[in-house]
Amino acid sequence: MRSDAGSADRPGLGGLRLIDHHCHGVVTRDLDRTDFEALLTEGNSAGPVGGSLFDSGIGFEVRRQCAPVLGLEPFAAPEEYLRRRAELGWREVSRRFLAGARLDALCVDTGFAPEPLTAPDELGRLAGGVPAHQVIRLETVAEDLVRAGVPAHAFAQRARARLAQLAPGAVAAKTVAAYRCGLDRIPVAKPGPAYVASAADGFVRRAGAKQPRLTDPVLIRFLIGVAVDLRLPLQVHTGFGDADLDLRAADPLHLSPLLHELAPTGVPVLLLHTYPFQRSAGYLAQVFENVFCDVGLAIPHTGRRSREVLAELLELAPFGKVLYSSDAFGLAELYYLGAALFRQALDLVVGDLELPPDEARRVARLIAGDNAARVYRLGR
Ligand SMILES: [Zn+2]
């Protein structure tokens, strides 16, 4: 693939604004080096003998592309970078990176907050006053109900009512089944009321006094069915994620039978992140009319190689089926770096199609935001 910056046959996408269709909030505190590096990896650290996370694809991109946003030279030393970051404070750092990402809108998964994070409204303000829409995490809704003391016999009805109440204020639902039971264990058919009741009984009993954690595939399939009945586009975590995940069970190909089952509903299913299964995801997006995909998360984490990752997704995926996401969580740099690397990758990949300039711009705009606007019915 070409890497000659600024060649005449490139669409030149520097000014293109993006819709980040899946991200989380930013941590609302200043970070020391350990905390910073912990947020720069899907692990916890490089390990006691593994060196620094700055010595990685993403680490060097932080130094190359993020340092100038903080007023430093590209490749400023990590110590200097973190000193400057501390000097500016988390709010100013977040404002610079979120505004610098040049987003038209964000879709924010609010269901995972191990510590205080910016709410969608604040994230939208930091990004320059753009809309920040909510994505409902299905497992969190179920866990909140059980934490609030809902008895097993009322679980199904209360979960349905709660999702119906949340749906008008959200653009999508999301499942983390890949983390909780594996994509290979989600039942294909909607479970009947007796199965749901017995699964709810087990979930409530196991939760007991502990923090409830929904891992039951029957209940997860039940919640997916409710979201689809409400016609909420369904985001599904697939591929790469943190160490909590068995990556083998996160291959989106496991979803084929379920996708067949959901196809007649026409409700959009969005395969999030997908790496290293992006070619399989591209296939699914081609063969199922209602399936869409992205390579978020992998974009910042694969650094300079993100252009190959996007190119592989676009080998089979129709251009109307691919969206942009950062899957940024916690660290403001990830929103900026995701967007910057995505624009660079898109510029190269679309450039390689050797299209007339107006067609190249149109294809790039589809992937940058028009597809997301259509799927989530966002006004632009
Ligand atoms: Zn996410």
Question: How would you briefly describe this protein structure?
Answer:
The chain is 45% helix and 10% strand. With 380 residues, it is α/β, with parallel strands linked by helices. The two termini are 33 Å apart.
What descriptors fit this protein?
380 residues; alpha/beta; seven-stranded parallel sheet; globular; disordered N terminus; binds zinc ion
Characterise the protein shown here.
The chain is an alpha/beta fold. Strands 1-2-3-4-5-6-7 form a seven-stranded parallel sheet. Helix 12 links the parallel strand 6 and strand 7. Helix 7 crosses helix 10, helix 14 crosses helix 15 and helix 15 packs across helix 16. It is globular and about 60 Å long. The N terminus is likely disordered. It binds zinc ion. Zinc ion binds next to loops.
Compile the SSE list and pairings.
Blueprint: E1 18-23, H1 33-39, H2 57-66, H3 78-88, H4 90-100, E2 103-109, H5 120-126, E3 132-137, H6 138-147, H7 155-166, E4 170-175, H8 177-180, H9 193-207, H10 217-229, E5 234-238, H11 256-262, E6 269-273, H12 278-287, E7 291-293, H13 298-301, H14 306-316, H15 332-352, H16 357-375
Parallel strand pairs: 1-2, 2-3, 3-4, 4-5, 5-6, 6-7
Zinc ion binds at residues 22, 24, 109, 327.
